[in-house]
Amino acid sequence: MSRKAAVVALTALAPISWGSTYFVTTEFLPADRPLFTGLMRALPAGLALLALTRKLPQGAWWWKSAVLGALNIGAFFPLLFLAAYRLPGGVAAVVGSVGPLFVVGLAALFLGEKPTVKSLLTAVTAAFGVSLVVLKAGAAFDTIGVAAGLLSSLSMSAGIVFTKRWGRPEGVGALALTGWQLTAGGLVILPIAFLIEGAPPALTGTNLAGYAYLAFGNTAISYFLWFRGIERMSASSATLLGPLSPITAAVIGWVALGQALGTVQVLGMLIAFGATLAGQLSPRTAKTPQAPEAPQVSEVESFSVAEKNGQEVSMDLEVSEVRR
Is the separation of the CB atoms in 74 and 189 below 8 Å? Predict the structure, then answer.
């Protein structure tokens, strides 16, 4: 397996895990507590990662972590759960599937990733496939739920773009950065949850099991893989893994809840999955002909490739070949 394929496969585990969120929310958690659910998903996971990595932000990364935490977690989680509680799962998934289109636009503004016909077409195709998978005739459209779903998608799309733009500070791993964002996002949700929803509800063993899964498997591990993948992929390629989430949700509904999958839904899965794969394919570029007298170099020989700020930048040939 190539390095790129390995990165894509590991990053894809995040939206696959998130596909279980609707099932866990409806089957394991107390009803009508979207803010408390977002809080319980983010803050315990963030604090656990802080304790594990023992690293805190420095300098500008205090406010950058706060912004990323608010976009990826603090605003996204409550809006996501509000949409999940107010909309049928299928409608919520379709509303959320517009995320790749948001990312294409934001990436053009802030990352210089020019929109292409391919990126727009794959994003629209993926959303169409998702709609075939999850949208049922007569599905109810709640105005607040739809608005919450769109805003949650926009919030996470902006989080993806700025995570890509800012990267992470030197010497800090993706696990620590994930902990900073989850903690910041949880702290954003904390006062709002208590002001709007009041004291936490009485929790059963089933509720605690559901929250434990969401906090650690569905959030701490999944967001670590997600942020790590964003560093190594383009923003549009990363967000086009999103359709794996509603596909997973549909499969879980079929296996665990006995929900039937018809021909149209299976066709939608194939369309959405095909668009996801297409979003990971790099365009072919013409090979540059080699000079006839090119000197032989060893597999990992280092050579000078550019001059920046008056100093030569040395790159490793093996890394260059992989990234090309």
Answer: yes
pLDDT tens-place string over residues 270-295? 998 899 898 887 654 434 444 444 44
- Among positive and negative, which fits the CA dihedral 307, 309, 314, 315? negative
Rg (CA), the chain: 21
Do residues 59 and 67 touch, judged by C-beta distance below 8 A?
Answer: no
Query: Rounded to an integer, what distance in angstroms lies between the CA atom of residue 83 and that of residue 79?
Result: 6
C-beta separation of 41 from 219 below 8 A? yes
For 223-238, the pLDDT digits (tens) are 999 999 999 998 888 8
Nearest by Cα to 144 from 105, 186, 86: 86
Separation between Cα atoms, residue 262 and residue 33, nearest integer Å: 32
Tell which phi-psi region holds residue 212, choosing left (phi > 0), alpha (psi between -120 and 50) or beta.
Answer: alpha
What pTM was estimated for this model as a whole?
Answer: 0.78
Q: Report helix angle 34-53 to 205-212, nearest 10.
A: 50
Angle in degrees, CA 138, 33, 25, rounded to 5: 60
The first and second tokens of residue 141, run together, are 């459209």
Euclidean distance between CA atoms 106 and 163, whole angstroms: 12
